[in-house]
Amino acid sequence: METNTHPLLSILNTQQRAAVTTPIGPVLVLAGPGSGKTRVLTHRIAWMLSEMDVAPWHVLAVTFTNKAAREMRQRLNVMLGDARTGSMALGTFHATCARILRREAENLGLSPSYLIFDSDDQLTVMKQIVADLGLDDKRYRPRALLNAVSSAKNELLSPTDYPVRTYYDEIVARAYARYQETLHQNDGLDFDDLLMKTARLFETDAEVLSRYRDRYRHVLVDEFQDTNVAQYAILKQLTHKHRSLYVVADEDQSIYSWRGADYRNIVRLRQDFPELQTHLLEENYRSTQIILDGAQAIIARNPDRTPKHLFTDKQGGHPIVLHEAYDEQEEADYVAREATRLLRAGYRHGDIAVMYRTNAQSRALEETFIRHNLPYRLIGATRFYSRKEIKDVLAFLRLAQNPDDDVSFMRVVNVPPRGIGSTTLGKVSAQAQNHQCSLYQGLLSLVESDGLRSRAERVLTAFATMLHQWVELREAYSVTRLIDRILADTGYESYTRDGSDQGESRWENVMALRAVVAETPGIALLDFLTEVALVADVDELADEVDAVTLLTLHSAKGLEYPVVFLTGLEEGLLPHSRSMDSPMEVAEERRLLYVGMTRAEQRLYLTYAFRRSWRGYRDSEPSSPSRFLEDLPDEALKQPEDQKRRAARPSGAAKPWGAESSRPETRARPEPQYRSGQRVKHAFYGEGMVIECEFEGRNEMVTVLFSNGVGVKKFLSGMAPMEPLADH
Ligand code: ATP
Ligand code: MG
Question: Model's pTM, two decimal places?
Answer without folding.
Answer: 0.79
